């Protein structure tokens, strides 16, 4: 997507005026829609649509051996797939950089034990643990990708049910797992601390949140802040531009504030979701 | 600031056709009729003695000719259409323009009015200056001059009303939602100009005054700051058009103006919420029905 100078000027003046092209103020978020449990063969899934950005997340669970240096921790892996349906730029290897960028930032954001406690995924110290594989599929890109992905991942993890283990037996070196046969006998994950990312875009002299694709084109610098329970877990720079130290502090503050509100809004919605509903994202 | 996260179960139905019969939508491969004496039009094909639909859309019949018009498609240009497009490439003697067609359209250097006004031969100097006039990313309004055999369009801006667009907002909708009319340039009474491109690109901008010495529209005023009131009207129009498009309503000056008037009870940013979008579309449809019944 390209913009001409006049369009950029119009957006820039709008941000200065605190009236963006769709009528939002600088700190306003667009309404979004979330769906959970839509993939029946995944352990947890979610789809999030924020204006034109569409993300589908599925969580799969495997039994694995813990890392030798972290014997009492489970594993959490992120994989991002950029569908060429989202934009033609993703064709071939086009989306690879973006995909690794997003999955690395997610791994960084979830690394802290306060954000996500991997110890709960341990089955037997040094022998067996659960490995969560989080697959993220970008179906459509309409700006503000990081925020949408982090919210969708959080919703999918909230929806994830880890199979209940009845007993663990050791026979020499072999470990035998006895997984409960009852389908409902499973454990939900604790996602209260799962980080929420907020992209703060600097357009002209001001910072905006939830930029649309056109606004992203106008921004001189962008900052992605991952926040878990009011604490910043990761900060990464979204584009090549530079930030003044005071702007940096201001944007961090803005990011934390917005992330807290996003987190509250998402958790409220997820908790109000009926346990079994059939919508499916093809409705 | 209030952040809205909604569940898919709370999704509102954008349809505005409640008491009114909505036409049947054919899906690709669906049998339309037994093929005996009918003629096969656009969007249809013959198989096993049946006439079947090749796109998802509604049937149109003119005497013996049956065609299926898709709701969502790329733009199929026709001569004389007004389009809004974006320059994608500058080549020798021509520009490539993205007009939402299957292929990029062509704007020849010889089919533009060059600054300076008078018609003259295009020289090598002009070819070197091409990027000064229009560069990649610039938006233009133009008219379809010719449709080539492969469906690609050639455009022209040989009129003072066409040319480069300055400050404003571009909204993209399905081409099928634009109602064909005598004029696609409107100066709305709310003090805003709007160009309804037949290709589904809609340009909303502050009023264009043609009285000033217009030189084929190659000037952009980047210093001008659009006043807040005009900006609010532009934003409101943008959100109204998207609301109408979401409910698959035809876009023309009256429907847009009605939607604008019906939307005044909401603030501009409230028009992003699905309920208010459907409400605006509903009341607009109601007013259009009243107008037609009178």
UniProtKB/TrEMBL annotation, chain A:
- Location in or out of the cell: Cytoplasm; Nucleus, Nucleolus
- According to the lineage, what is the superkingdom? Eukaryota
* Pfam families from the UniProt entry: RNase_PH, RNase_PH_C
Q: Which organism is it from?
A: Agrilus planipennis
The record's similarity note reads: Belongs to the RNase PH family.
Which SUPFAM superfamilies has this protein been placed in? Ribonuclease PH domain 2-like, Ribosomal protein S5 domain 2-like
Q: What is the predominant subcellular site recorded for this chain?
A: cytoplasm
Stated name of the protein: Ribosomal RNA-processing protein 42
Ranges where the Exoribonuclease phosphorolytic domain occurs: 29-163, 194-256
The membrane spanning regions, by residue number, are none
> Keywords, A to Z?
Cytoplasm, Exosome
What does UniProt give as GO cellular component?
Answer: cytoplasmic exosome (RNase complex); nuclear exosome (RNase complex); nucleolus
Is the Calcium keyword given for this protein?
no
Q: A single GO molecular function, which one?
A: mRNA 3'-UTR AU-rich region binding
Which BP terms in the Gene Ontology apply to this protein? Answer: exonucleolytic trimming to generate mature 3'-end of 5.8S rRNA from tricistronic rRNA transcript (SSU-rRNA, 5.8S rRNA, LSU-rRNA); nuclear mRNA surveillance; nuclear polyadenylation-dependent rRNA catabolic process; rRNA catabolic process; TRAMP-dependent tRNA surveillance pathway; U1 snRNA 3'-end processing; U4 snRNA 3'-end processing; U5 snRNA 3'-end processing
- Listed CDD domains: RNase_PH_RRP42
Gene of origin? LOC108741055
UniProtKB/TrEMBL annotation, chain B:
- Matching Pfam families, A to Z? ECR1_N, KH_6, S1_RRP4
Entry keyword set: Exosome, Nucleus, RNA-binding, rRNA processing
Fetch the InterPro entries from UniProt: Exosome_cplx_N_dom (IPR025721), Exosome_RNA_bind1/RRP40/RRP4 (IPR026699), KH_dom_type_1 (IPR004088), KH_dom_type_1_sf (IPR036612), NA-bd_OB-fold (IPR012340), S1_domain (IPR003029), S1_RRP4 (IPR048565)
One GO MF term on file is:
RNA binding
Domain of life, per the record?
Answer: Eukaryota
One GO cellular component term noted in the UniProt record for this chain? nuclear exosome (RNase complex)
Compartments where found: Nucleus
Signal peptide location:
none
Q: Does the keyword rRNA processing apply?
A: yes
GO biological process annotation, one example: nuclear polyadenylation-dependent rRNA catabolic process
Q: Which residues form the S1 motif domain?
A: 80-158
Q: What is its main location?
A: nucleus
- Indicate the family of this protein: Belongs to the RRP4 family.
Q: Mind telling me what this protein is named?
A: Exosome complex component RRP4
Gene source species: Agrilus planipennis (Emerald ash borer)
Taxonomic lineage of the native organism: Eukaryota, Metazoa, Ecdysozoa, Arthropoda, Hexapoda
Q: Which gene is the coding source of this polypeptide chain?
A: LOC108741705
């Amino acid at each position: 997507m390209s913009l001409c100078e006049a369009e950029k000027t119009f957006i820039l003046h709008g941000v200065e005026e605190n009236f963006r092209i769709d009528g939002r103020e600088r700190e306003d978020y667009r309404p979004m829609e979330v769906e959970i449990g839509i993939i029946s063969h995944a352990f947890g899934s979610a789809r999030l649509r924020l204006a034109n950005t569409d993300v589908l997340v599925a969580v799969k669970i495997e039994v694995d051996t813990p890392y030798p240096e972290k014997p009492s921790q489970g594993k959490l892996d992120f994989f991002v797939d950029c569908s060429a349906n989202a934009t033609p730029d993703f064709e071939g290897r086009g989306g690879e950089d973006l995909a690794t960028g997003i999955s690395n930032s997610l791994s960084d954001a979830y690394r802290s034990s306060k954000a996500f406690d991997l110890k709960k995924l341990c089955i037997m110290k040094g022998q067996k643990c659960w490995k969560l594989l989080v697959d993220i599929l970008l179906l459509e890109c309409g700006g503000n990708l990081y925020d949408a992905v982090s919210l969708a991942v959080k919703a999918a993890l909230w929806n994830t049910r880890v199979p209940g283990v009845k007993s663990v037996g050791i026979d020499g070196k072999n470990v035998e797992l006895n997984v409960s046969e009852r389908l409902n006998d499973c454990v939900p994950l604790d996602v209260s601390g799962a980080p929420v990312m907020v992209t703060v875009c600097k357009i002209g002299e001001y910072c905006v949140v939830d930029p649309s694709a056109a606004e992203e084109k106008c921004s001189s610098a962008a900052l992605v802040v991952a926040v878990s329970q009011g604490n910043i877990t990761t900060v990464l720079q979204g584009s090549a531009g530079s930030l003044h130290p005071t702007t940096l502090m201001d944007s961090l503050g803005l990011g934390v504030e917005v992330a807290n509100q996003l987190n509250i809004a998402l958790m409220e919605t997820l908790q109000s979701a009926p346990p079994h509903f059939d919508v499916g994202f093809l409705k | 600031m209030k952040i809205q996260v909604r569940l898919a179960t709370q999704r509102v139905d954008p349809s505005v056709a409640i008491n009114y019969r909505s036409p049947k939508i054919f899906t690709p491969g669906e049998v339309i009729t037994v093929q005996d004496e009918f003629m096969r039009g656009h969007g249809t094909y013959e198989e096993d003695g049946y006439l079947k639909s090749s796109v998802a859309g509604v049937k149109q019949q003119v005497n013996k000719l049956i065609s299926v018009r898709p709701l969502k498609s790329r733009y199929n240009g026709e001569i004389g259409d007004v389009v809004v497009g974006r320059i994608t490439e500058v080549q020798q003697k021509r520009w490539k323009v993205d007009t939402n067609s299957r292929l990029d359209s062509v704007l020849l250097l010889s089919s533009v009015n060059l600054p300076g006004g008078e018609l003259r031969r295009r020289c090598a100097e002009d070819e070197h200056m091409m990027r000064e006039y229009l560069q990649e990313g610039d938006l233009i309004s133009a008219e379809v001059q010719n449709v080539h055999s492969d469906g690609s369009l050639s455009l022209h801006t040989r009129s003072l009303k066409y040319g480069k667009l300055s400050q404003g907002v571009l909204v993209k909708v399905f081409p099928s939602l634009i109602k064909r009319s005598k004029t696609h340039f409107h100066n709305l009474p709310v003090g805003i100009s709007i160009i309804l491109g037949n290709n589904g690109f809609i340009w909303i901008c502050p009023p264009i005054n043609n009285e000033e010495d217009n030189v084929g529209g190659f000037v952009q005023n980047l210093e001008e700051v659009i006043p807040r009131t005009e900006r609010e009207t532009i934003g409101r129009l943008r959100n109204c058009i998207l609301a109408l498009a979401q409910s698959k309503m035809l876009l023309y000056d009256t429907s847009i103006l009605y939607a604008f008037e019906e939307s005044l009870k909401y603030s501009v940013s409230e028009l992003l919420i699905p309920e208010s979008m459907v409400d605006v579309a509903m009341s607009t449809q109601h007013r259009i029905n009243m107008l037609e019944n009178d």
